[in-house]
Every structure is written in structure tokens, then in C-alpha cells.
Amino acid sequence: MVHFNLKVSRGVPSLSRDGKAVARHLPQRGRERFSPLPQGEVVTSKTGRVRGSSHRACARPGSEGGVDGGHVVHGSAARREPRPPKSVVSRVMLLGVIAIVLAACGGGATEKGSPIASRKIKVLATTGMIADLAINVGGERVTVDALMGPGVDPHLYKASEGDVQRMASADIILYNGLHLEGAMSEVFERMSERVPTVAVTEGIDRAKLQSPPAFQGNHDPHVWFDVTLWMSALETIHNAFVQLDSANAAIYEANTRRYLDTLVALHKYVLDRAQSLPAEKRVLVTAHDAFEYFGSAYGFEVHGLQGISTVTEAGTADVQQLAEFIATHRVPAIFVESSVPTRSIEAVQAAVRARGFEVAIGGKLFSDAMGSAGTPDGTYPGMVRHNIDVIVNALSREGS
Amino acid sequence: MSSPLALEINDLTVAYHDKPVLWDLDLEVPAGVLMAIVGPNGAGKTTLIKAVLGVIRPAAGSIKLLGEPIEKMRRRIGYVPQHGSVDWDFPTDVLDVVMMGRYGALGWIKRPGKREKDVALQALEQVGMTAYKHRQISQLSGGQRQRVFIARALVQDADVYLMDEPFQGVDATTEIAIVDLLRALRSKGKTVLVVHHDLQTCPEYFDWVTLLNVRKIASGPMAEVFTEANLRKTYGGRTAIYSSINGAPNNQGLAKTAVS
Amino acid sequence: MDLSLSSFFSDYTLRTVALGATILGVTSGVLGSLAVLRRQSLLGDAISHTALPGIALAFMLTGSKAPLVLLFGAAIAGWIATLLIVGIVRASRIKYDSALGLILSVFFGVGLVLLSIIQKTPDARQAGLDKFLFGQASTILAEDVLTMGVLGFIAIVVVLLLWKEFKLLAFDPAYGEVLGFRTTSLDLILTTVLVLAIVLGLQMVGVVLMSAMVVAPATAARQWTDRFGVMMIVSAIVGAVSGIGGAVASSLTPHLPTGPAIVLVAGSIVAFSLLFAPRRGILWNWLKQRQRGRRFQEEAALLDLYALAQQHTGQSHSHTLGVLRAMSAAPAGTRRTLHELHTRGLVASDSSDGWRLTPAGFMEAEKLLREQNVRT
Predict the structure, then answer these.
(1) CA end-to-end span of chain A, whole Å?
(2) Given the DSSP bridges, would you call strands B34-38 and A360-365 parallel, antiparallel or unpaired?
(3) From C163, C171, C180, residue closest to B104, measured CB to CB
(4) C284-375: what fold?
């Protein structure tokens, strides 16, 4: 950057509008019309009087350098600088901010006025798994919206203003709870004052919840991997709908019963497939510690690179220890997750390879999010089935 | 074939945001003179230097150095800036700074070698700073810093030297040393233009002078130009001051035959 | 875990991470030196923060998360931001640091917005872009290290080639302009290389922490040397040590993220350098100050004794501590000062708490007086 742009003392008054032209043709007159000199050094005016202490120029040390000394010359010339109307600008900005906030807050209550029994219930769920449950309980009676789509990591998800509006205009909000939606707890608190907000895990017996040592008194939130625990969530949702819309309780009852059968069958399926693997082969290594409940429900030893929440960053030691474990136990496959970057697992694989063992990437598991909508993986049962199939297929291969 | 004029300036106008800093300047400086550029604050002296160096673009006018446009003559100009213009805490020593004067001749990428070092040492000798060659620049006094800048300009081996207030903040001994140096340059046929702030010493040190106040007031040999009338036009102010400088009565040429 | 040195570095992960961190450290050390010497330390901060929207846009436009693609986006964004900052400074009255802060926050904010937009798309591949905020050093792959190596190599080669030009640019750009080195071109080249250096480090320490790597090694190095070349080398070494140190620390401590560990090591080195470096360090200067103070008190005591001696005929008349205290400007330290003078052989004491000058002391006092007279 060229630092020494020519800096002129600010006090030099400007040329008169067409001063240039004037001065060019009529030098004498121009000189008197404007003085191109800073205040204090004006050449003798017509009356011969002099202003300013020009003898300062011959003083010895201490006289400032010439034009580019950059010193500001005081006096009326300097005062001529236009001052920006600071107060007006800041006032406009303040009004703007207030307007935005009002718009955000006000956008809530639209057509909620009409009685709920006569229209569809608007359900807002956080994860796809919860949305899936809600659709199956509510059937025709509900329209369900999920905040977090496929591939979205709920641990890191931050709600935007748009999300808050959607929540405010829903009839009921369903979220996982147990701090799965780590960045949104404040939002749920606020919303619960206006809209029924239900944590679908609240019905689960706390004794059945796991509490990993690193998580300090909080529970592991990944309960949907144990189908039996997810049945409890189904029940919670059922109760919430009935409370909201008691007129149609019969419908919800029927739907829930039907879906419960599906879930029971699903649970059996997973158990059968898991048990088709010999016990020593049931080692599941994934990107983060999401599968603890899966492990305890279906008999797998589970290891993740990152902790319970993807917020934590894996350190070098974590990579090394995991690689060491995999190589020592000759685990045939490790798994990437749809909502976590694949890079971390690839790094583990490379580290294992350096230890002389080749571990395959067994496939992609759906951990904190489901597959794309419209595909079988986009439903809860489909996702669970996908997971267990991928796991068992990969692990039943003979290790290399 | 070079013209006898070291510097030929025509109609030079430099404006900054519509404020004129130099106005319609015509100047002819013959080769081999030691010239002072004199004027009040804001008169455009440093601007003139920078325009001749080619670092600011004039609004109008042309500048020729030794008969050629200045863009072609960069190598022939040496420059000593005002000493406040640099960060003196920079990690470098005196010799290093002086060698920077050779960078222009080296061009891009080439590193300075033994030859450049020898030239730099010679220049340090000329300014009397050989003992300080590995001194950190932060440890130098004002006068020493000025001398380093001069040495740096000397190694440029130019034909025309431009100096911006080289005597500022400098002690008496250094000042004499610098003047001797300038005279030595002149005797080698170089042209030296110096922005000078002290009217008192002008007649003694320089043989030519340009009086400047946005416009050229006067320019020429010291004896002819350094008159009270001209000084008055340049600065305004009481004539008594100027009479007292030389003790000469009013309206007489003020310059003695100061410079030989 | 076997802690011998050779087994340490035979571990693949540690080796890879440490190598990447070393490249990062060396490059940011060298280029950081130039930025710091040009008083543009915060430019590194700006370039790293403004890279965020570049990364997001690169993903949105190409759908690819390949590091080269994302880093290219980061580089373009950082470059554009720098141009904007310079443009704002030139075209308006806004000062450099205000323009820098403005562009930095606007770009970063846009980047966060883009990230949250991406977060909402049903595209399942988008996971992991926010890792660029704080880096993910421990999972760096061998091919990423290769990319870093190539970029770092280019950056260092450019600096080596244009060594004297960059030195001139940093020290006296005005003079460089006069010599014919167009400052704008040099500035452009230096900015480009700085962008390269920063972008290669984003994968490891992330957008938020990269500015520390630009500033810390150079600042630490400046404390230890007054020579330009040596400063660059020391800076590179400090950077490398921080990198390796962070990697090793993270390797020894489970759940310690590597990127922040690297920055912590660098920061400790800076703190140490600021405190303990000779000549420029705080401790050093404090000690020197105390030394000076003590010398001053000793001289004052000597002269006091001399003055007292003049009033009495005979040099052997001794004076009590109380008298000397009364004369002193700092009475509390008088006894210690006298003891110090005694050690130097300039005063002698007798049994009844009396102090007088020794012949050597007299000579010293007279010498001091002579010097004082010369000074005034």
C-alpha cells in the first residue's frame, strides 16, 4: 500500500467553484479571490497587512515539514468541513431495528384463531425421526414440518428467525430433548410460553437413560436407536395430540396402535439380524458416540471418534487411540455417518492402515438425521433397517 | 546528448481535491548547482520534490530531468526524505539501510552482493558513519539518522539529488559535515536541490535558490534572487526581520557572496 | 503408550498432523513477519475471517467439499476483501483499521448466514463446512498435507525471490517507489502470498484462530533479534515448534483439540518472549530500571558523604546513618546503598555506626563532580 499519499493540511480552503478557470486566465485576481495557502501564512493582502506569524518559517529546529507534514491548520477554514448528521443516522437505524424485531415477533398468530378440531393440526418437529412419528400418529389430522432435514446435524443446528416464526405459528412443537438440539434450548423455553412444546423423551424412565462419564450428569440423547425407547416417544406424542385435540382421540388411538405393531416388528427384525453376527464380531465404530443405546439394546460394543456431541473436536490422541483399538481387534469395518463429515473416519482409516491393518468403510449410517424424503431411508423404520443391514453386512465379512 | 539544464519544469500544477498545492510552475535549474527551495509551510516544497521524483501525478505540466522525461530518468535521481517518514524500530542496521540505495540499480530479484556492500561502506565513510555500520537504526540519534539517509542517497550514484529538509533536527557538527558533503557533490558536477527551512543559512550554504509559495516567486542565483522584496513576496511579514538577517539596509540584495 | 521419541513419530497420525502443523507454522511465521513489520497484523485476521463466505459459496456453487475447491473459494474471498479494504481507504476518509473491521465483520456475517442456509438444504453432503470455523487438525489427511506443502512452498519461494523488495516495502515504501519498485504491484504480490499462507492453514486451525498463527510467531521472534533475516528464521522456527508442540500435546491428552492446542503453544511462546527476552523483554527492562535507580542512589550517597567531609577538616570524620538518611531523597534505602558502596570499597564503617569515604571513595566522588560540571 502506498502510504505516503500526498496529504495536505486540512485547513486549506477550497477553490471557488470555477476558481481554477479564473486563476488560469487572471492570475492576479485569482489570488485575491481565494488564498491557496493555509491560514496564518497569507501573503500581504491589499492593505499590506499581514496575518499570521510567517517568521515561524525561518525558525530552526521544530518547524514542521512542508505540505505533507499533515498538520491540521486551525481556524475558520477547518471549520468549513461538513459534519455528517450523526444523530439522524443513528435514529434511523434504531427505528429500523425496532421495526425488524416487531415484525419478527408479530408474525406469530395467524390462523390459529379457528378451533383446532375443524382443521389440520400444524406440527413442527425438530428431527426427521420425530416428524416421522408425528405423521404416523396424526395421519390425516396433521401437517408435519421438520426443522432439520436429511444430513443436518442437530447438535450444531442454530435456529434462524425464519425457524422461530415457523415455531411460533405451529400448534404444537415436538423436540427430542436431553440436549440433542444443543443450540436451541433457549428457543424452546421461549416458545413454550406461547405454543405447546413437548420433549418426546420426557416419558422415558430415567433409569433407562445412559449417562456417559464425559457428559457430566446429562443424558445421552440418541434414544431413537433403541426401538423400544422410541416406542415411549410414540406414546408421548400420542398423549400430546390427544390433549391438544381430544375430539379426535379415537383416531390417534387407532393410528398409534397400528404403528406400535410396526415398531415391535422392527425391533424384532433388528434383534434377529444382530444376533446373526457372532458376539465377538459385534463391534461398531462410528464418527461420533451416537450409538450407545443401539449398542446396549442389540448387543454391540460401540466406539465413536468424537464424543456424544459433534461440537467437541477430536484430538490427535483420540484418533490414535481409536486406530489402535481397530487394528488390535481387527475390526473389519468402520462407518461414516450422514450428518458428520466423512473426513474424520477417513483419517482413522489411514491411521489404521499405517498400523498394517486394512479396515473398510462399511457404509453410511443414518445417525442424527434420516435419508432423503420420499426414499425408504426417509422414514424411521426404513432408516433403522438400513442401519442394521449395512452394519451386519459389513461386519459379517471375513476380516482381512 | 544531455542538455545543460538539470531540471526543466513547465506549467507544473498539482492539486489535491481541488486545492492547488503547486500552481503553474516554471522552473529551470542548470546542472551543477546547489539550490535551496524555500517557502512557508504549505508552499508546496515537498510536493515539488515528489513531483520531480515521479511519485505524484501532476494535474498539468511537464518535468524533464537532464533533457528527458522523468519516467526514464529514475536511476539518475537520488532522494533523501524527511527523517520522520520511516519506522525506526524496524529490525535492520545502518549498512543494510544504506545498501537499499542500490536496489534500484539491481532491479528485481537480484540480491545485493560484495560490490554493493563496498559502495555502501564508501558512502558511510563520506558521511562519517563507518563506526556505526552495524548499529541498530533504533539506536541512532536524529543527526545520525539523517546521515544514514544521505549515505543511502549517495550510493544511488545519481546526477541529481533531491533532499527534503536534511538539516532538520541536526546538531551543529553534523550540519557542517552535511554542507561539506553537498559542496563535494557539487564539485563533482552533481546538481543538488534541497528543501531548506532556515533562511538565515541560505545565502551561506547555497548558490542558487527557488522561492516558492504555491507559485514560483523567484528562482536563480542566490545574490540576484534572495532579496528582501522577493522574500517579502514569499512570506509576507515585517521587513525588519529580513534586514536584521544580514544587517543590510532595506531594498538591497541580502545575499552575500556566500557560496564559492 | 510407548513414549520413546522414535515411536512417537512413527505413529502415522501424529506424523501427519505434526507435518501439516509444521508447514502451517513455517509459512505463517514467515509471512506473518512481513505482515507484522508492515503494521498489518490484523490483515491476517481479516483475510482468515473473510474466507468463510468464500468457502460457503464454493460449496454452494460446486457441491464439492474437496479441500482444494473450498480453499480456492476461501482465497478468492480473502483477496477480494483485501482489495475492498484498500479501496475504501483510498476512496473515502475511513481509516485503515475501521475499513478492516467493517469488511471483516460483514464478510464473516455473510459467511455465517450462508452456512445456515446450507444447513437447511436437504443436501446430505453439506455436513462439515462449519468445521472450517475452528479447523479439524487431528483428522487431516495425507493429501491435505500435500496440498499445504505445495502452497507453502510457493509462498516461501516468492518471499525468497522478492526478499529485498519486500524488505524495502516494509521499511520504506516511499523510497521504494522512488527507486522504481511500484509499491502497488509489490503490495498485490505480498497480499496474494499472504492469502495463500492463511488459506492453507484454515483446515487445521480454522478461520477464527488463524490470525493468531499469523501474528504470534513474528511477535515472539521480534523480541529476540534485531536483524530482519534472523527474525524471519526465528519466526518460522517458532511457528514450527508451535505446530509440533500442539500436535504432540493433543496426542498425549485425550479430547484436547489439536488446532487450539497449536495456538495455545504459540501464545505461550509469545508471552514468554514478551516477558523474558533480553533488551526488549519486560523483565529485562524492569531489572535495568532498578539497576539505574540503584546507581543513582549510590552516586547521591557518595556525594553526600563528600559534602559532609568538606565541612570537617580531616577525611576520617565519620557520619552516622541518621545524618545520611536526613540528606537523602530516598531515606529508606540508605543503609542498603551504604552497604553496596562498602562492598565496592568506596566507604568504610566504624564500630559506632559511622560512615566515611575511603580514599577510593574520594576519588570516585571527585570524578562524579567533574562529570557533572561537564554536563551542565
Answers:
(1) 60
(2) unpaired
(3) C180
(4) Arc Repressor Mutant, subunit A (1.10.10)
